[in-house]
Write a structure and sequence with these properties.
The chain contains four helices and five strands. The chain is α+β, with helices and mostly antiparallel strands.
């Protein structure tokens, strides 16, 4: 099994975000995985010790979702923890609140699974697209 070397730890703020998301995902019985630059950095830098260049300033998570009501429930539950605030312009983005009322890392929730069939027939609950 691969693991992150102690001398190359993952960004503590990313760990904090992932712990909170994991708790909510377990409560709701959802599967997810880390993707994007965060996943790249964990694997290449943390595990293999390779320089990935510029560090990422967000966390991207792919979440297995059945439909838009479940997607909205996940977002609502994360916001209810007090650790996140919704982005008012990007439907799949939340902001981690490092301090009350102060936004820090963006958290992008990327739905996959049965919701993808719905996506081919509609653009989601609002008129904006996932980007």
């Amino acid at each position: 099994m691969l693991s992150v070397a102690p001398e190359r730890p993952v960004d503590p703020l990313a760990i904090e975000i992932l712990k909170e998301v994991d708790r909510v995902a377990q409560e709701l019985g959802l599967e997810y995985f880390v993707t994007g630059a965060t996943a790249r950095d964990i694997l290449l830098s943390g595990v293999f010790g390779l320089d990935t260049g510029r560090g990422t300033k967000d966390v991207d998570l792919a979440i297995a979702i059945d439909g838009w009501p479940q997607f909205e429930a996940v977002k609502r539950r994360l916001v209810e923890t007090g650790a996140f605030a919704p982005d008012q312009q990007v439907m799949h983005r939340l902001f981690h609140l490092r301090e009350p009322g102060r936004r820090s890392y963006p958290l992008d929730l990327i739905p996959f699974g049965p919701i993808e069939e719905l996506q081919t027939r509609s653009r989601g609950p609002r008129t904006d697209r996932l980007s």
